[in-house]
């Protein structure tokens, strides 16, 4: 891989062109860094699913100039809440309440749209497709990045190579890696045409959940989860979903029917086991290499915060690196600012999963009663520490202490 090096401009290599890696690339290139993103896939395409960008992530994206494009669509419409399989609402907050409290409404977008928006904000030569990062060697003043297309020299490496991060394994060989979270999930994006307007809701049964999220582009993102053992795969996803959820409240049966339609094109149903880091990393950096997003803190999807935290990480790392000449000091500050927050959110996400997948009827009744008895303001207030996050400005500096 030939490199034309401008001695005056600092160079960052980002391993992984997912949500976190591309956000970091935008943050750094807009601050004058030369950035190379190595992405092992040969095309950059968000997987066929939706993602909810919570107010904390929207603020982060706005701080690097990406707010207007991403907030152009409709916010999550109407009521957002939790239901039981017969349709009873356990909790319901209208979108106005979220916007009033946090100043922004969550946006549910297709992952492809998010990836396209990030790539469009980068200079044309930044992303190198079909290039895998295989290792790093910190040689003091710089770091050598080993890739499938040859070596690169960088001032800093951002390891955004996802939950199965090769670089995490290299930097923290004693870490236990991933553990299965006891569940698997399905995801799909449906055309919304001809269907009545949908309300965003998650429905909790016994060890099973079904979610409906209208996307800003008019499509409908649906997901479902079930208690599962590692590697279990139903023979037919649609049949399995219908067996589990076909008798649940409206509009779930109609959405399942649409999932099975082949016209205008068959709907792709994704199915994955859920994993999370078996334990927090001791820190989120080593020398001139920082980990971000799922590479640093793969968490369960129960809070919808994995991608949002990857975006926060990326924005904070770019801010701290731009402020300091001393890269290792900037990355040490990055660990100080990000480690506790992401560890707490991962833990909280796990606990929500434990509640959501209860299956004993008595435990489910008690859980549902407790959720119903919690006032809306209290449920919202409980999210303050997550959603009220502000992007760094003068408030986060390399010298900031935990
Ligand atoms: C069911 C489900 C629902 C979710 N819903 C939400 C939600 O609503 N909101 C939210 O915020 N989060 C959500 N998440 C979490 C979110 O998807 C992840 O946290 C997020 O995608 C992490 O981004 P990332 O950039 O760290 O990693 P990834 O998106 O995994 O990107 C990593 C990239 O690195 C590339 N790569 C890997 N290894 C290498 C290598 N060696 N060299 C070069 N490239 C490499 C990969 O090809 C990939 O493109 C959900 C997760 C699941 C499973």
If you had to describe this structure to a student in words, what would you say it looks like?
The protein is an alpha/beta fold. Helix content is 35%, strand content 25%. It contains 14 helices and 18 strands. Helix 1 links the parallel strand 1 and strand 2. The longest helix is centred in the last third of the chain and has 30 residues. It is globular, with a radius of gyration of 21 Å. The model has no long low-confidence stretch (mean pLDDT 92). Bound molecules: flavin-adenine dinucleotide.
CA gyration radius, whole angstroms:
21 Å
Strand order of the largest sheet: 5-4-13-14-15-12-16
Please report which band the strand proportion falls in: under 5%, 5-15%, 15-25%, 25-35%, 35-45% or over 45%: 15-25%
Number of strands: 18
Largest sheet: 7 strands, mixed
| Low-confidence residue ranges | none
Total helices: the number is 14
Could you say which overall geometry the principal axes of the C-alpha atoms support? globular
The helix/strand class is alpha/beta
- Distance from first to last alpha carbon: 40 Å
**Bound small-molecule species:** flavin-adenine dinucleotide
Helix content: 25-40%
């Amino acid at each position: 891989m030939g490199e034309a090096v401008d001695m005056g401009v600092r160079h960052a290599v980002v391993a992984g062109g997912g949500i976190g890696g591309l956000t970091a690339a935008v943050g750094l290139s807009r601050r004058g860094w030369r950035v190379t993103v190595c992405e092992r896939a040969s095309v950059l395409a968000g997987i066929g699913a939706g993602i909810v960008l919570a107010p904390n992530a929207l603020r982060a994206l706005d701080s690097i100039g990406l707010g207007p494009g991403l907030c152009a669509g409709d916010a999550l419409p109407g009521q957002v809440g939790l239901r039981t399989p017969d349709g009873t609402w356990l909790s319901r907050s209208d979108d106005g309440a979220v916007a009033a409290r946090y100043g922004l409404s969550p946006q549910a977008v297709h992952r492809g749209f998010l990836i396209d928006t990030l790539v469009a904000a980068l200079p044309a030569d930044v992303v190198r497709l079909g290039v895998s990062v295989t290792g790093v060697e910190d040689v003091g003043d710089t770091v050598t990045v080993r890739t499938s297309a040859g070596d690169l020299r960088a001032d800093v490496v951002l390891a955004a190579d996802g939950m199965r991060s090769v670089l995490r394994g290299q930097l923290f060989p004693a870490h236990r890696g991933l553990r299965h979270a006891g569940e698997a999930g399905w995801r799909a994006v449906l055309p919304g045409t001809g269907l009545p307007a949908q309300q965003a809701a998650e429905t909790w049964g016994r060890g099973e959940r079904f979610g409906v999220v209208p996307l800003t582009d008019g499509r409908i993102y649906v997901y479902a989860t079930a208690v599962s053992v590692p590697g279990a795969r139903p023979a037919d996803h649609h049949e399995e979903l219908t067996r589990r959820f076909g008798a649940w409240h409206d509009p779930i049966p109609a959405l399942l029917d649409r999932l099975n339609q082949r016209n205008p094109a068959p709907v792709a149903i994704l199915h994955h086991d859920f994993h999370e880091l078996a334990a927090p990393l001791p820190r989120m950096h080593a020398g001139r290499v920082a980990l971000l997003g799922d590479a640093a803190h793969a968490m369960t999807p129960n809070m919808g915060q994995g991608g949002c935290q990857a975006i926060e990480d990326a924005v904070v790392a770019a801010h701290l690196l731009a402020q300091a000449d001393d890269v290792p000091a900037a990355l040490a500050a990055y660990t100080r600012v990000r480690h506790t927050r992401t560890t707490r959110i991962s833990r909280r996400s796990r606990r929500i999963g434990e509640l959501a997948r209860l299956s004993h009827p008595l435990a489910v009744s008690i859980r549902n009663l407790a959720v119903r008895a919690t006032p809306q303001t209290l449920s919202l207030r409980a999210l303050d520490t997550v959603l009220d996050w502000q992007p760094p400005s003068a408030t986060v500096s390399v010298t900031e202490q935990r």
